[in-house]
Amino acid sequence: MAELVKTKGYPLEEHFVTTSDGYVLGTYRIPHGREGASPGPTPRRPVLLQHGLLDSSATWVLNDPDQSLALILADAGWDVWLGNSRGNAYSRNHTGLGPDTAAFWDFSFDDMAAADLPALTAHVQGVTGCATLAYVGHSQGTTVALAALSTQGALRAALRPVVLLAPAVSLRHIQSIPMLTLARLQADQFFAMLGVFEFMPSREATAALFEELCQATPTACVSVLTAVCGFSDRNVNASRLSHYVTYAPSGTSTRNVAHWAQAVRAAQAAPRGTLALTMYDWGGSCVSPLGRPQTCNRRVYGREQPPTYDLARLEGVPLAVVWGGEDKLADPLDVRRLLYVLPQASLKLAVGVPTFEHLDFVWGNMGDTAKDRVYPLVLRMLLEWAE
């Protein structure tokens, strides 16, 4: 992270946040902007930025200072905090488990909502002395926030406002070929059969492979990104892809990916017009084919089906939703369903950017740039609703 932030003239602090279940999250703070930047709000109010699936805190600072949201916010006078979800390149430590053990990877975004976000929030509160902080999430970062806010009243009081960029919640109309394939394969059973627990880890060899691919054959690199999440060089400079893929993918657990595959299946099986964000489905059988006890929904939840996160409980939390008209992961039809489900009194801003795809919100640096179409909306929301 230092090579992405300090080299551009910004201060950077590294923090380590331990969750209630022992994961140590690498967390970064940009306490202020460059010398001569806007003084902004006084005192500096904290804002937490949370990345998406297979991404990391680096995603917010990969572009030039005037095109990277974290640096724009720092220059505008905000105390910027960058979170990292358990299991990615910056959060591979635990108080009692190593990343070479299966137990370390036994998590999904349920655990990020239940333990990661509360720990990050409490840490920012403790360091800054501020009772509230603003929150900006992208993709899975929006899902984690909505799940956490629906279950924890303390977070509803602490995170104000909450900005959701490319919210991946309802996945009925998802067009990601890999995710649709994993959904059809019953990803949880598929990964268990293979004995694989870590998904697309961030390794030097992996990063070098992606970087070489994108440098040597940019069209192949674009094809991979297009299949995964939709991509074109309309808003993202394809010549910089080798730089981006040095930091992404950043790894997660196979169970987390399986949870996303479950979400796709559940959304496609649900009645039209409904939205149900559910916890991880452990299955109905509490006995394995070999007759041994195994984890099941009844053992974990005390019921046959996994609970659903009640998004109506976000009443009173100032929310902003910004989505892309060309997004293949957070499809506009699915976002509209989310807008219908969220408490209308809480929804302070809802804007679609017709030309935007999923990665344009963090990497967009040409055409309809994020700095012109999205980041002014983020700043406006923060200035109007931060407490």
Automatic annotation (TrEMBL):
The active site is at 139 (nucleophile), 327 (charge relay system), 358 (charge relay system). Residues 2-63 form the Partial AB-hydrolase lipase domain. One of its GO terms (biological process) is lipid catabolic process. InterPro entries: AB_hydrolase_fold, AB_hydrolase_lipase, Lipase_euk. Keywords: Glycoprotein, Hydrolase, Lipid degradation, Lipid metabolism, Signal. Pfam families: Abhydro_lipase (PF04083). GO terms for molecular function: hydrolase activity, acting on ester bonds. It comes from the Eukaryota. Belongs to the AB hydrolase superfamily. Lipase family. This is Lipase.
